[in-house]
Amino acid sequence: MMTPDEILRGLYDETLVGNGPAVLGLTNDALQQGMEPQTLLFDALIPSLEEVGARFERGDFFVPEMLIAGRAMAGAMEVLRPLLADTGVQTIGKFLMGTVKGDVHDIGKNLVNIMLEGAGFEVIDLGVQVPPEKFVAAIEEHQPDIVGMSAFLTTTMPMFKANMNALQKAGIRDEVIVMVGGAPVTQEYADAVGADGYAADASATVKKAKELIQRRRDLVTA
């Protein structure tokens, strides 16, 4: 039988290489041994995904490696999520995510979702082809801290502005932090549409989201 330390090391290593079946097996072994779900999350899974992000930033990993590591972690999260909810683990914040109307690309968005969940965010995914009115309704229903809008095509990028206008019109623009991203999106474009934040990839999104939430909380308490 593996020791708790061996299980954590194994979880870290197998997540790093994207070995989904091994990650799931180790997660189940750990729980059978009575290990705490948050220990698995904070001592193995999140550090491993952070290392994946760091390697991606250095150019040692590419999108496929990030995706398979993300998927491996997602398998463990399926098992851990209900248990974490029961233990009342504090989430960092609520993140509402969707690919804009006219765009059906979701690989990048899904990867960002996994990274955000792994970092401790509660993620609500609206899917693809999300029209402005659906973003508005979901914000009113879920009261997220951050709304993430993704576009993969240059032809769908103008939907960011349409979405921002819809939030403004509904009187909820100031209630949420808006982040935009996707392959053709730049910081300049994000600034031009009036978004609060932009990130070039999944690991940068997590960093930026934490930073934006902290900044807003500091303002509130100041």
TrEMBL record:
Keywords noted in UniProt: Cobalt, Metal-binding, Methyltransferase, Transferase
Protein name: 5-methyltetrahydrofolate--homocysteine methyltransferase
Pfam families in the cross-refs: B12-binding (PF02310), B12-binding_2 (PF02607)
PROSITE patterns per the UniProt record, alphabetical: B12_BINDING, B12_BINDING_NTER
Family the UniProt entry places it in: Belongs to the methylamine corrinoid protein family.
MF-aspect GO terms: cobalamin binding; metal ion binding; methionine synthase activity
Statement: the UniProt record of this protein carries the keyword ATP-binding: no
Classification via InterPro entries: Cbl-bd_cap, Cobalamin-bd, Cobalamin-bd_sf, Met_Synthase/Corrinoid, Meth_synthase_dom
Domain B12-binding N-terminal: 1-92
Native species: Jatrophihabitans endophyticus
Ranges for domain B12-binding: 92-222
UniProt-listed SUPFAM superfamilies: Cobalamin (vitamin B12)-binding domain, Methionine synthase domain
GO biological process: homocysteine metabolic process; methylation; tetrahydrofolate metabolic process
Any one Gene Ontology cellular component term annotated for this protein: cytosol
